[in-house]
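User: quick one, fold this
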Amino acid sequence: MDVINYLMLLLSVSMTVAAQTLLKFGSRNVNFEGSMINILLGYMTSPLIVGGFAAYALAAIIWVYCLSAFDLSYVTFVSSIQYVLLILVSLLIFQEHISVMKWAGTGFIMIGVIFWLKG
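Assistant:
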């Protein structure tokens, strides 16, 4: 396969992680009390949330490209790297506690992905 295809797959996964990170940051500044209109206005006026949605949109466009370049089963399994990246973001950026069980579960998922890709 062409190197560009693999880079696009990595970019799609990275953009998804970036989108979730931006949305998490943005959610800290939105008031979730009050009417639905006020909550939606909070979404639409938060640069972080708008940026998160934009990153998701870009990731989706790149994802469609990846679907044309790879088998669906392949890209779906490779995208599981998001779990590890998001745990690292949770730990390093948001200082969230990641239990041993969560690390073990993530490890099992990644072992399964490796087995699947090799098989």
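User: anything notable?
Assistant: The radius of gyration is 17 Å.
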